[in-house]
């Protein structure tokens, strides 16, 4: 293990794109974490990088990315909503809606006691294409 640590510490910046110092701060923000092994830090960084790469590639291939030759927030939020693997990200990547529609939803919630986004789904897609 010592040799692996020494080998990694010299080349880890080239093997991982994400900043290890930031990942260390995020890991230490958890109350259960008291110390972080350098190998664990590196592996967490690499796993995170590969996950983000997979999310982006999947979203590009299954969204409108190919048509527009771009990856959009809408592609990412659609993936979080539709793909079971990424559904845990739905709160972090919600579908974008116009502020006016959100205010209407809040008003309706006050009246009905429930929020429903589905009613305006067709309109949302039109709005996105205009923007």
Automatic annotation (TrEMBL):
Leader sequence segment: none
Pfam families in alphabetical order: CBFD_NFYB_HMF
Alphabetized GO MF terms: DNA binding; nucleotidyltransferase activity; protein heterodimerization activity
Domain Transcription factor CBF/NF-Y/archaeal histone: 17-78
Region (Disordered): 109-131
Compartments (UniProt record): Nucleus
Keywords: Acetylation, Coiled coil, DNA-binding, Nucleotidyltransferase, Nucleus, Phosphoprotein, Transferase
SUPFAM superfamilies: Histone-fold
Major localization class: nucleus
GO biological process, one term: DNA-templated DNA replication
Compositional bias ranges of the Acidic residues kind: 115-131
Cellular component terms (Gene Ontology): CHRAC
Gene3D superfamilies in the record: Histone, subunit A
Function noted in UniProt: Forms a complex with DNA polymerase epsilon subunit POLE3 and binds naked DNA, which is then incorporated into chromatin, aided by the nucleosome remodeling activity of ISWI/SNF2H and ACF1. Does not enhance nucleosome sliding activity of the ACF-5 ISWI chromatin remodeling complex.
Quaternary data: Heterodimer with POLE3; binds to DNA. Component of the CHRAC ISWI chromatin remodeling complex at least composed of SMARCA5/SNF2H, BAZ1A/ACF1, CHRAC1 and POLE3; the complex preferentially binds DNA through the CHRAC1-POLE3 heterodimer and possesses ATP-dependent nucleosome-remodeling activity. Within the complex, the heterodimer with POLE3 interacts with SMARCA5/SNF2H; the interaction is direct and enhances nucleosome sliding activity by the SMARCA5/SNF2H and BAZ1A/ACF1 interaction. Within the complex, the heterodimer with POLE3 interacts with BAZ1A/ACF1; the interactions are direct.
Protein name: Chromatin accessibility complex protein 1
Phylogenetic classification of the source organism: Eukaryota, Metazoa, Chordata, Craniata, Vertebrata
